[in-house]
Design brief:
Blueprint (H helix, E strand, L loop, with lengths): L8 E4 L6 E9 L3 H8 E2 L13 E6 L5 E10 L10 E8 L1 H12 L4 E2 L4 H8 L5 H12 L3 H11 L2 H25 L4 H4 L2 H30 L1 E7 L5 H9 L17 E7 L2 E7 L9 H16 L2 E7 L6 H13 L5 E6 L18 E3 L8 H15 L16 H20 L6 H19 L5 H8 L7
Parallel strand pairs: 1-7, 8-10, 8-11, 11-12, 12-13
Antiparallel strand pairs: 1-2, 2-6, 3-4, 4-5, 5-6, 9-10
Helix pairs in contact: 4-5, 6-8, 6-14, 8-13, 13-14
């Protein structure tokens, strides 16, 4: 599928700001002409050799020497976009890079829109839609594990898995079509055992991908960890201690935290969104009551709930009530109890009091027990993501949110097909289910993508990709 454009586009492909180098990328039929116009080589009769870096000087819009740098020319179709591509490498000052970009635009080139280079790569068959989306996921990956997941999809393995599922279901659709055209051979064409086996294999493959999405979600988005508990339990002090800096206001006055505070940290390589919430009690004013209601709502949505209690207290009636309440809504292992202010306590209360939840004795003031708590939070978050106590499974190919929604749609359609298969419905009616399933799978890989869908996906990319 080639969709060569007669327009040439250009953009700065490196991040904004100051850096060691900046790269101006040009793609389209005028790419070579732009390189020759803006790059002066010390070699007489210079002709750019494909895929070789050349040293020389870069010129501004007036043709004056602007900087020394490098240039590379990559003719299509064997380039990133499938078109002729040129790159000009200069020093990384924003003024220099913008001057080179302006000079390129003076050569009959327009500025690229967000994600337009990757979109052209997709339209020119250099990658499928899952690989194109993996480019954005790679750029946005918050951790090395997230980058690994994106790299696995960028290799094309995910698209191959979807293609394999589709091929099996397409074979069934062909059988159904033949049964409509040749009704006398229907019994031979519609082998129930073969149909059920193919459907079961497809459902198993889809379920595996959806489970991988749940496992990978935390590595992409970060696990939400809510610090909850009674007022003056030391939640804000614990929040600051885990962050390693003063972020939340700490006061002996009860009810200091009215709204929640959110910060991102990294625990054992896992991105975590840590939320300090208002203390739970009978609110004394409308604002505090709003904060308490918000605290309960955030806890309901959290991946991990950390219930903070004052270890120096002798009566934990309220805290035990909260444990009972949260234990009903939290996934097993995702509710932790933290007995803070250990520097004021003589003994650690019996864990039996806390309905089997993991209990950590810490002191936000002295730092006692914080490392063990951080490890416990990371472990609970990983278990919440379905990956068990270790890292993500080797070879996990995880769909993103858009892809997982389409896979769920395909799975529902296939389950409906599986239910109707033994009922004796005519083949043309049964094939309607498969048509919907295959259409959803095609939307995953972009085989039948509409312009509106492509606009929505590529508009989320950065300029220059």
């Amino acid at each position: 599928m080639l969709a060569q454009s007669d327009e040439t586009i250009a953009a700065i492909a490196t991040p904004a700001g100051h850096g060691g180098i900046a790269i101006i990328r040009v793609s389209g039929p005028r790419a070579r002409q732009v390189l020759l116009a803006l790059f002066r080589s010390p070699v007489a009769g210079f002709e750019p050799k494909p895929r070789y870096m050349h040293y020389g000087h870069l010129l501004d819009a007036s043709g004056h020497v602007l900087d020394e740098g490098l240039a590379v020319y990559m003719p299509g179709p064997h380039s990133a976009t499938g078109e002729d591509v040129a790159e000009l490498h200069c020093h990384g000052g924003p003024g220099v890079a913008m001057a080179v970009l302006e000079a390129a635009c003076g050569q009959g080139v327009r500025l690229a829109t967000a994600g337009e280079f990757t979109r052209r790569a997709f339209l020119n068959g250099r990658m499928n839609l899952t690989q194109a989306e993996a480019v954005a996921e790679m750029i946005g990956a918050p951790t090395a594990e997230g980058a690994r997941l994106a790299a696995a999809k960028l290799s094309g393995v995910f698209g191959d898995k979807i293609a394999a599922i589709r091929a099996g279901l397409d074979a069934l659709r062909i059988q159904l079509t033949l049964a409509v055209d040749f009704p006398d051979d229907e019994a031979e064409l519609l082998d129930p055992a073969m149909f059920q086996r193919t459907v079961a294999d497809a459902l198993e493959a889809m379920q595996g991908l959806l489970l991988a999405y749940e496992r990978a979600r935390l590595w992409r988005e970060g696990a939400s960890v809510v610090l909850a508990g009674c007022v003056n339990a030391g939640k804000s002090s614990l929040f600051n201690s885990l962050l390693g800096r003063h972020r939340a206001i700490v006061s002996a006055m009860p009810g200091t935290t009215r709204d929640y505070i959110e910060e991102s940290i990294n625990l054992g390589g896992l991105p975590v969104r840590l939320l300090d919430t208002a203390g739970l009690r009978a609110g004394e004013d409308v604002v505090e009551m709003e904060g308490i209601a918000l605290s309960r709502s955030l806890a309901e949505q959290a991946d991990v709930i950390v219930l903070v209690a004052d270890a120096s207290k002798h009566d934990f009636t309220e805290e035990k009530g909260f444990v009972q309440q949260y234990a009903q809504q939290a996934k097993a292992g995702s509710l932790l109890v933290v007995l803070n202010k250990q520097e004021l306590a003589h003994t650690l209360p019996d864990p039996i009091l806390w309905q089997g939840c993991p209990v950590f004795g810490v002191s936000a003031k002295t730092g006692q027990g914080l490392d063990a708590l951080a490890q416990g939070i990371a472990l609970a978050a990983r278990c919440r993501g379905g990956a068990g106590p270790g890292e993500l499974a080797e070879g996990d190919i995880a769909p993103n949110l858009r892809q997982s929604a389409l896979l769920r749609e395909a799975r529902e359609g296939l389950l409906a097909f599986q239910r109707d298969l033994p009922t004796g419905l005519p083949p043309d009616i049964l094939s309607v289910h498969l048509d919907g399933v295959i259409h959803a799978l095609d939307d995953v890989t972009g085989n039948a993508s509409q312009d509106e869908l492509l606009d929505r996906i590529f508009s989320s990319f950065c300029i220059g990709k």
